[in-house]
Amino acid sequence: MNIRKVASLGPALLLAMIGSSAASAQSAFKNYRCADGTQFTAGFFQYDSRAHLQLGGKPVTLAKRVALSGSRYTGRGITLRITKTGVTTLRQARRPVTACEQT
């Protein structure tokens, strides 16, 4: 009888361990819509300082740069700024800066 209890406990422990490791890999995905009609998704991961964007149907990784207030990410002619107050702007190569809001 004890062997059956131990045998049924094994799969439960395995599922608990898998669930806890998935929860520890925290990430945040945010959808944005800009004033010029651009839409993108930004992914931020706990152990990665970069911003991962899905912009125009293509993946783009932006490196975090020094900013006086908030966060600034740049790469491949794209600059994403997120201030401490939550104001977000996006600048793409050969386009003016546009204000974006989280949807």
Characterization of the model:
The chain has one domain: C-type lysozyme inhibitor (Lipocalin, Beta Barrel). Helices cover 22% and strands 49% of the residues. It is built from 1 helix and 8 strands. It has 103 residues and is α+β, with helices and mostly antiparallel strands. The chain has one helix spanning 2-24, and strands at residues 27-34, 39-45, 48-55, 58-65, 71-75, 78-82, 88-91, 98-102. Mean pLDDT is 83; it is low at 4-24. 10% of the residues are buried. Strand 4 and strand 5 (71-75) form a beta hairpin. It is globular, with a radius of gyration of 20 Å. Strands 1-2-3-4-5-6-7-8 form an 8-stranded antiparallel barrel.
Please give a quick description of this structure.
The protein contains one helix and eight strands, in the order αββββββββ.
Question: In which order are the strands of the major sheet placed?
Answer: 1-2-3-4-5-6-7-8
> Could you tell me how far the N terminus lies from the C terminus, measured between alpha carbons in angstroms?
55 Å
Helicity level: 10-25%
CATH class: Mainly Beta
Overall domain count? 1
What Rg, in angstroms, do the CA atoms define?
Answer: 20 Å
Mean pLDDT: 83
Provide the succession of SSEs. Answer: HEEEEEEEE
Largest sheet: 8 strands, antiparallel, barrel
Helix and strand composition category = alpha+beta
- Quickly count the helices: 1
Uncertain segments: 4-24
CATH superfamily: C-type lysozyme inhibitor
Share of residues in strands: over 45%
> How many strand units?
8
Which tags fit this structure?
103 residues; alpha+beta; Lipocalin; eight-stranded antiparallel beta barrel; 1 helix; globular
